[in-house]
Every structure is written in structure tokens, then in C-alpha cells.
Amino acid sequence: MSSAVAPTPEYELPEGYTHIYSGKVRDLYKTPDDRLLFVASDRISAYDWVLPTPIPDKGRILTAMSIWWFDRLSDLVPNHVITTNVPDSVARRAMVCHRLDMFPVECVARGYLTGSGLTEYQAQKSVCGVNLPPGLKDGSKLPKTIFTPATKAELGEHDENVTFDEVVAAIGQDEAQQLRRLTTLVYDRAASIAAERGLILADTKLEFGSRPDGTIVLADEVLTPDSSRYWPADEWEPGHAQPSFDKQYVRDWLTSPASGWDRHSGEAPPALPDDVVEKTRAKYVEAYERLTGKRFA
Ligand SMILES: C[C@H](c1ccccc1)n1cc(-c2ncnc(N)c2C#N)cn1
């Protein structure tokens, strides 16, 4: 299905759970006691499409990764997770969360230049109004971590990079400064932990909300391969697109003659072959095990 169509969630929930919203790979429900159930599906997206073939355990692996990161970040910023005690149909792939007043900002931190940041840099030698030195290439390490916020796009659309001043105009100076400070703090800690495990955290997208008392809280999923770019450090070579830690097998197959698919055709991509599914699942397991030092059961 194209990225413009919200998928129908694949699981039944008990009476009293109300489906609120589905993104490409995540689903949000209201719980019977008016909290939120944040569900990570096994859906995988590539080239702006939700692929027809799920990756077994992807949602469980990425939920375990989020929980691990939330725990390691709790001294920097509180998070929205209440419990992982969830209905059996979404066991280990869901979190019950506090309902927050979400900031309308995708809080992106970048330690490396690629993707939309590279495109903007190539056009104007800056990203989100942050000036950068000349001579940077795809995959270049940035002199320091930069905050490159974006507006939240509708399903199927791309987020639009905005300047810090535009964030100030949207939410006020104080909260904009808090989001920038927290986003770069979280990124810097996570990038340091990932580097110790041989992984480059090139960038990440965080979402924050606020409690009624104004406390800023880290929400959504955090530091998963769906919200972040992870690269194997031993393959890092600025000057070209870096291999995606988790989606390279999928991208390589989809763009190979074997798939029979033209990503520019507007046609939906085909189902993935079993070996691509298995190798992709193994990459998610590897990312979890390398980061956490724990076996994925
Ligand atoms: C974008 C993201 C999303 C999640 C799941 C599926 C599709 C999109 N989303 C998160 C909230 C949200 N709202 C209020 N309180 C919260 N704690 C959260 C969270 N997380 C609303 N949307």
C-alpha cells in the first residue's frame, strides 16, 4: 500500500480500546482508562511505501530497544511510558503511555550529514538555518551536533525542515530552547553509547510532549532504526550514501532487477522474498543485541 494510505492494524484488542491513529509502522489506541497504547507493528517502510511483507518480531525488537533507551535517558528527561503490561495480542510490542500535549515539532538532531540535511546543505551551505563549513560530503561528521527541526507532515508526506526561529514562533522561546537542549543532550549520549558498540548514530528524530504542569516529556519511540539512522562504524566512508544498518537488504533487493519493481513508477512494491525478510529480521536482532548487550528472546 502506498505511504499515503494508513494501514489497518493487524491485531485485535479487547473491548474498550479505541483506535486513534496509524502511522506507516506504528498504531495508537486509547485505553479503557484513557491512557494511550503505543503499538509497534511488524510493518516496514522503504522508499516512502509500507511494504506488503512484515518483518517478524520487528515491533517487539524496536519496542525493547525504545524501553532500553528510555531507561538510559531517564536522568536527562522523563518519558511517557507507564507500563509494558499490555494485552496479549500486542505482547512485547506495545507500551501504555501518558497522554501528553504533543509539541508540533519533529525534534531532529544530527551528528552526521545525510538525507534532507545534505540536500539543504548542498543548496545553501546550511541546514535549518544552521551554517556549516564548506566541503562537507554525504556522511561527513559534523563539527558539532546540530538541532534540525521539522514540521510534522501528514501521512505520506515528507516532514519539512524549519529553522529554530520558526519553532520559537510556533511554541515560544523558552520551550523551543528546552526542546533544542534536550534533543541534542539525548542524541549526544546515545551517539556515545552507540559508538562504544561499533555503531554510528548519524541522526535521530524525537517527539516531546508536556504534562499539564508544563513538564517536558520524551514521547513516541526513541532511538530505534525507524526513528534514527544507524550505520556500521567499520564501513563508514564519507562521500557516498552509507549502508543502512537495518534496511540495506530491503533497499538493495527492491532496487535490483530481481524485484521487477521501478521505485519511480508510482506502482506499489512487491512482496519481499523470504531470505530478505530473514536477513532484515537478523539485522534488527543484531542492532538490539549490540546496543543492549542482551539476547533478544
Ligand atoms: C506521532 C505519534 C504516533 C504514534 C503512534 C502511531 C502514529 C503516530 N504520536 C504520538 C502521540 C502522542 N500523543 C499524546 N501523548 C503521547 N504520549 C503520544 C505519544 N507517543 C500522538 N501521535
From TrEMBL:
Keyword Ligase found: yes
PROSITE patterns: SAICAR_SYNTHETASE_1 (PS01057), SAICAR_SYNTHETASE_2 (PS01058)
GO MF terms, alphabetically ordered: phosphoribosylaminoimidazolesuccinocarboxamide synthase activity
Pathway(s) the chain acts in: Purine metabolism; IMP biosynthesis via de novo pathway; 5-amino-1-(5-phospho-D-ribosyl)imidazole-4-carboxamide from 5-amino-1-(5-phospho-D-ribosyl)imidazole-4-carboxylate: step 1/2
Gene3D superfamilies given in the database record: ATP-grasp fold, B domain, Phosphorylase Kinase, domain 1
Pfam families noted in UniProt: SAICAR_synt (PF01259)
Cross-referenced CDD domains: SAICAR_synt_Sc
ATP-binding in keyword set: yes
Domain SAICAR synthetase/ADE2 N-terminal stretches: 19-264
E.C. no: 6.3.2.6
Reactions catalysed, as given in the entry: 5-amino-1-(5-phospho-D-ribosyl)imidazole-4-carboxylate + L-aspartate + ATP = (2S)-2-[5-amino-1-(5-phospho-beta-D-ribosyl)imidazole-4-carboxamido]succinate + ADP + phosphate + 2 H(+)
Keyword list, A-Z: ATP-binding, Ligase, Nucleotide-binding, Purine biosynthesis
NCBIfam families recorded: PRK13961.1, purC
Classification via PANTHER family: PHOSPHORIBOSYLAMINOIMIDAZOLE-SUCCINOCARBOXAMIDE SYNTHASE (PTHR43700:SF1)
Family per record: Belongs to the SAICAR synthetase family.
Protein name in the entry: Phosphoribosylaminoimidazole-succinocarboxamide synthase
The species this protein was found in: Longivirga aurantiaca
Lineage: Bacteria, Bacillati, Actinomycetota, Actinomycetes, Sporichthyales
